[in-house]
Each structure stands twice: as structure tokens, then as C-alpha cells.
Amino acid sequence: MQVALSKVFGPLKDHPTQTTPRDDETGEEALGVIDMHYTPRDEVAKGEGLVEMNGAIIARFSPWHFDHCYNDELNYAGVLRAPINAPVGGRTGFMDGVELYRQFPPALRDRLEARNVIYTLDTRLSTMKYGVNFTALTEYATTPQLLKEASTFPRAMHPAIWTRETGEKVMHFGPWMAVGLEHQEDQEGDRLLDDAAHEINRLGEGTSAYWHDWTPTDMIIWDNHRMLHAVEGCDAQYERQTLRTTIKGDYGHGYFEDGKKIGEVQREIA
């Protein structure tokens, strides 16, 4: 059902990484629906993927980001269900980049105009550089494999602000997986991105974000070219599962640092 409904919005795109777990039930026609499943009895015992925030230990936390930022091509949209939810927490937050641009402090926003942000496939929260408001406790068991795969990806560049064909400007900086400012990888560039990331966190805690409380029958689709999203995490004692379908379609502003295309990278990985 999720795959069939997703195809109404466009062709599906396989996930660019091999280490991301796929859903086994959908078959090849689904092009890799990804299965993000946290099982407490396994992962709490190992202490995997947990962070401490505001005095609580939480699982499945994801800072603000846009999908496939580490790739030269984005995906057009994501389609998400959460068949297994924690009784408290686990909400997914969304922020519209057009409204975020309007609400951003003008002096800070102007410093990000015409600037590209550098992203990598390194998803470790323990090495996140900007807007950090948590303590990463441990990594996932798949982290060594992910880092090996990440080493084959060139760094990807995406604009912090871009303009839609209809004229609206979109604030599109995702602090997670960002590693620097293109042509200014120094302390000043890092301070600019850190200030911007903390402002995104602040706005995300207020009225700028929509936070969705999941029920098993919900399904959400969002424009990945325009939206940032995050997951607040949930108490580590509870199981949580989300299934995401990916809709193909690029916005045309990203590129790899060395000029390669994703097809070349994927062939090298294979």
C-alpha cells in the first residue's frame, strides 16, 4: 500500500547507501523502502545509538536535516509511516524552509546567502559539529561499515539558501552531517554555521515547526527540497519502527566536490 501510494507522486528512488536497512517485504519493485527499527531488548543491552538530552536517555534521535544531503542529487520527497510507536515521544518535526527563511534573523540570514555547505555521509552524532544540544553516548553497530562506505563518497555541496522558480527563497541548511562552509573551512565559517544551527534549533522548539504525534495508520509525505525534518527521539525502553519510501527528483543545485556523479560513485562502491 505504501509503495503503491508513493508511486502516485513520482518514480521511486533507491537509497544511495548500502548500509541502510531495507524492508524485506516489498520486493525489488519497491527500490529499497528503508526500515528504521529500534528494538530495546537488543540495542539498550548494547548501548547503541543512544543520546542524553535534558537529563533523559533517548533512542532514535535525529537532528534537523534534509535527506540525501551527502549526495549530489537530492530526492524529491519522502513518504513515512510509523507502525510501531513509543507511548510518549518519538514525534517527527517538520520545518518549511520558505517560512524559516522569513523568520530567520536577517543579519545571520544575509551571511548565508550565496554560500554552499559541505556535507558528508558521516552520520555519527558524536562528531556532529553544529548546533549540538545533546550528548552522544554510543554509536550503532553498523557505524564501521557506514564509515567505510562514507570514505568512497566525495563531499557534497548544497546551498544554504536557494530560490524556487516561483521566487520564494528557501532556508535549507541541515546541521546534521554538515562539516563546513565551502571556501571557508575555518573558525569563522564554523561559527557562522554553529550560530545558524542553534537558531534552527530555537525556531524548531517554537511555532516554526510542526511536530507530528504518530499513530499506526498515519502516513506523511513531505517536499525534501523545501522542508527540514527531525526526530525528537523516545525513551530507550520502548520499541519504535518507521518505514520510508523515497520519491525520485532533484532540485539541481547540489554537486560533488570532485565533479563526480552519483552513478560513478555507486559503480566504485559496487
Automatic annotation (TrEMBL):
<comment type="similarity">
    <text>Belongs to the TfdA dioxygenase family.</text>
</comment>
<dbReference type="InterPro" id="IPR042098">
    <property type="entry name" value="TauD-like_sf"/>
</dbReference>
<keyword id="KW-0479">Metal-binding</keyword>
<keyword id="KW-0560">Oxidoreductase</keyword>
<protein>
    <submittedName>
        <fullName>TauD/TfdA dioxygenase family protein</fullName>
    </submittedName>
</protein>
<dbReference type="GO" id="GO:0051213">
    <property type="term" value="F:dioxygenase activity"/>
</dbReference>
<keyword id="KW-0223">Dioxygenase</keyword>
<dbReference type="Pfam" id="PF02668">
    <property type="entry name" value="TauD"/>
</dbReference>
<feature type="domain" description="TauD/TfdA-like">
    <location>
        <begin position="2"/>
        <end position="245"/>
    </location>
</feature>
<dbReference type="InterPro" id="IPR003819">
    <property type="entry name" value="TauD/TfdA-like"/>
</dbReference>
<keyword id="KW-0408">Iron</keyword>
<dbReference type="InterPro" id="IPR051178">
    <property type="entry name" value="TfdA_dioxygenase"/>
</dbReference>
